[in-house]
Amino acid sequence: MTDLQSLDLRRRSASEDTPPSIRHQPEVAKLIDVSRCIGCKACQSACMEWNDLRPEMEEFVGAYENPHDLNPAAWTIMRFTEWEDEAGNLEWLIRKDGCMHCSDPGCLKACPSPGAIVQYANGIVDFISENCIGCGYCVKGCPFNIPRISQADHKAYKCTLCSDRVAVGQEPACAKACPTGAILFGAKEDMTAWASERIDDLRERGFDKAGLYDPPEVGGTHVMYVLHHADRPSLYAGLPDKPRISPFVQIWKSAMKPIALAGLAFTAMAGFVHWVVAGPNEVQPEDEAKAQDILKHKDRT
Amino acid sequence: MVARYTTAQRINHWITALCLILLALSGMSLFHPGLFFLTALFGGGPATRAIHPWFGTVLLLSFGILFVRFFHHNLWRREDTAWVGRIGDVISNHEENLPEIGRYNAGQKLVFWLMSLLILVLFVSGVVIWDQYFFNLTTIPAKRVAVLAHSLAAVAIIGVWIIHVYAAIWVRGTMHGMMRGSVTPGWTFRHHRKWLRELARGR
Ligand code: SF4
Ligand code: SF4
Question: Domain B2-200 adopts which CATH fold?
Fold first, then answer.
């Protein structure tokens, strides 16, 4: 995707700039009400159409997922899980998978290329392809296993939350296409309020563990789910129960950067100080003389 | 003059050295945003990302040959432990207090073995995160461990490299050995007397 001048940036990968903060740009969110989804994949098609994506045809392997996984040309897919509850009732859990647009995005934290990943003031996390170097660090940073690197152009791709549409006041293509109203888009505040009404509704109908998925471990997300089993998100095709940026990535990207550079600078400085204090170790004329003694001794033996 | 390195050994060393410098520059550019500008040396970000692992592959091959050539000179001896015990005298240039040393001293041996170990760690972890060709070989959690191990080992090897280079500058006459292949008898007497005696005995 491209940089959008109409949206201010809150964060920019590998950059220390102070973000502009004069304009008022409320946080947005997409609310996916899993309990209303019928798995028709209209959102998937709308995403392909709006973003000009044509994923390759794959083999049928006995599952409804199609394609089988996210890929550089499939930024959202429906994941289907057949689950039996304690009473033996079958539930068909359908989840629209894609980027969660984390408030604290692991992808952006890991990205080494300035401006290849940005977070707009409204919360949308976007990959700016012309700055992407294809290193795959975002793949390691993301707690939701979302970014995919294309083998065609070696750039990372994922859902943009239709940042180009949102910038001009439109809702994302998936939300527009959904026939049941399972995908809603608006201010995060409004979406949260709407979700709580819906959750009350579900609880009344017997889903007493219904709730909102807006994981605080990543600072909340700008794509949220209403789940009937919010106590067990992993039922829904492995949605992480407690998503968090891996501690390995945290160490690599936070503490280590300054400590490593300081350590190397210190080592080099120590060499310089040693030169000044102790000085070079030079061969003395008597060393040469004694060396000749040893070598001559050889001639005699 | 005392012959220390053959032409082939020197070329082998300098190919390895060049690779290490190119790896450090390209690697550091992707490690710290403040050094991202170094990618310009390699033709931009994507080119740096693509070429870095190939430098590593050349380094592995080149260092592998170096390793086979020199490892038997770097086996630990009793006098090496004594040498390490007198590290204060080493640093303050009091060579007269040190035991007689063979072809390599303990410091040089440590550099050799640390380089060997770190290059192994860097290559293995590097393959795990060489996504262009080997993405499907390992899981993402494994790649997270590998990327941290790779950067830690890289910082360590750059530290070892700084010590290696400074020691070559500090101990005068050493550089000539690696540049032109020979050192003076006095240099050999001063720093590697046991080796000089062996040479004198014709071994
Ligand atoms: S879900 Fe992954 S790719 Fe999306 S914003 Fe969060 S960390 Fe980034
Ligand atoms: S692949 Fe691109 S977006 Fe992902 S971390 Fe690397 S430069 Fe950033």
Answer: Fumarate Reductase Cytochrome B subunit (1.20.950)
